[in-house]
Amino acid sequence: MNSKKFVKRISLCVLSCLLVLPATVSANGVQITPDHFPFIKSLPTPEVQVNLMDSESDLTETSLSINLNRMEYNTLAVPSKILDKLKDRLQSKALYAQEKIEVSIMLKYDAVVTKEEFIEREWEIFNGNITDLNGFGGYSFFAALTADEIEQLVHLEEIASLSTPDDVVSVYGEPDEHQSEVYLNGATEMTGIKKGRSDYGVTGNRDGKASYSKNDSVIAVIDTGIDGGHIDLSGGKILGWKDFVNTSSTTAYDDLGHGTHVASIAAGTGAGDPGVETGVAPGAALVGIKVCSSNTNCSTQNILNAMDWVIANKDTYGIDIINMSIGSSGSTNASFCNKVSSAANNGILTVVAAGNTSGGSDYGSLNLFAKCSDVLSVANVADPYEGGWYLNPSSNRGTGSVGPTLAAPGTSIRAAKANSTSEYITYSGTSMASPMIAGLAALMLQASNGSLNYDFKIEDYGMSGYDKVYGNGLILGHQTIKAASGSSTGSFDNYRNHIRAQTNIAASNINLYNIKVNSTDAYFANTLIINNENGADLDLFIWKPGVEPIQNGQLRLDLAIQSSAGDLPQETISFKPTATGNYTIGVLAYDSATYALDWAGQISIP
Ligand SMILES: [Ca+2]
Ligand SMILES: [Ca+2]
């Protein structure tokens, strides 16, 4: 009874919830080695023109004209926020005020509120009208609404676009042919993991047999359970099962679905949708440990027990890696950290999600389990199929100099849906990024023939070197597998050119940069990270080619695309450019700050 006091309730992040992890270099063999592609321009800081506003009053004046922002820029979708097909339908239905039309609602990816918060806030509109909460991904959902209700939505600033459900939409209403096709394979493709599997002949199937055994790479998933009936996870893939919630259960199950999704990202075969939904290490085996109840509560005691159980059963099931996409805010739990260290001493790598509660003014909120020095913790980025590479604003960051270990794709990841046999569902979060790395570790283990020297290759993002936001940087999957295999051949075009800048800026200044966009096929992702932890406010502006940021001596913020206000400590703009050429990017400072700016896409320095 007294022990109940020590049972801390931990809410599991599901749906669009993100888990964020701390970045560390483990003394027990986790090494992070920066590695840059030769074709990525080793940048000197890009050419910077600094245009300082003369006075505060100037800044205030120009700030007043921010309202127009995207209107001029994106004539395709933003002016009405309603895509053409829906506009036609609305016009034809205008006489029938009570008729409901099902619409797809896409929020701006950089909206300050989450999808769930938005729906709750606008409950008068949505009450009983949501038809599919999952929509096309983390920022989308479906609802059946009247023309009047749709009209109300159009004017809300969080809305990126409204369309009929059969339109494929993306942020800013631009069609994205990838989102409905690529799913889990998209993330493994973009990181180079998919090509790495092929080039170096690894899947996690270390025993070389079609069956699963403890001699394969084995990942223990501490979560809500695993649905062994899903076709992507069946066939003996789940070698072991331990249930700390319903202690009499002997067969793997998942009454919430989070763990199934996570497990299939790490090791799903993709059998339900071959060639589309393959997990990172489809030949790896799994062990399921259920610590979370069906109401999303995961007790710390269950988690500690699970760590003990994994270590005690390491040899029985050949457990190599632990994935724990579970988290809570709070201070470091020394008992948990000790068990992670003990696992490491037993050759088990523990991968933990960094957490998903960032954004707003929340600067330092690493998942408490991600704070252990021997944990490998994972932040969440969007890959180019999802408008990236950019940091998902909800991905938790650390404080001071301590953040996650590295970042991996976890945004709009489509993977196995529990209790559906062969269906899939899209979630976003560090919960999804963590099993990307756990699965990659399973591949590395095979490529290195069992070496426990996990040497992850990364691309530096954000502030130079290790930082509290990206940790060591974004995962380079192909290079990582290549290094583990010891091969000197094979390469990967990772679809990204990356340019990075960082500097200090004084209040009431704007720094202008020029970046050349070379293709309209790829998203142009801009991520501004404010390094300070004091609430400094910066805004990000982009002027398209041919538009002069300064006209008649006036800074024309009204002609720029602008990130949404109040999105501390990060500003993000990603869009598919409608024109190639030189874009001007402005960082406007209301307060003095240190910031890092990352650009990704088919871009170069002019
Ligand atoms: Ca096997
Ligand atoms: Ca960095």
From TrEMBL:
Record-annotated Peptidase S8/S53 domain positions: 215-450
SUPFAM superfamilies noted in UniProt: Subtilisin-like
GO BP terms: proteolysis
Signal peptide: 1-27
Keywords: Hydrolase, Protease, Serine protease, Signal
Catalytic residue positions: 223, 258, 431
InterPro entries named in the record: Peptidase_S8/S53_dom, Peptidase_S8/S53_dom_sf, Peptidase_S8_Asp-AS, Peptidase_S8_His-AS, Peptidase_S8_Ser-AS, Peptidase_S8_subtilisin-like, Peptidase_S8_subtilisin-rel
A GO term for molecular function: serine-type endopeptidase activity
Pfam families for this protein: Peptidase_S8
Protein family membership: Belongs to the peptidase S8 family.
Protein name: Subtilase family protein
Organism: Paenibacillus pabuli
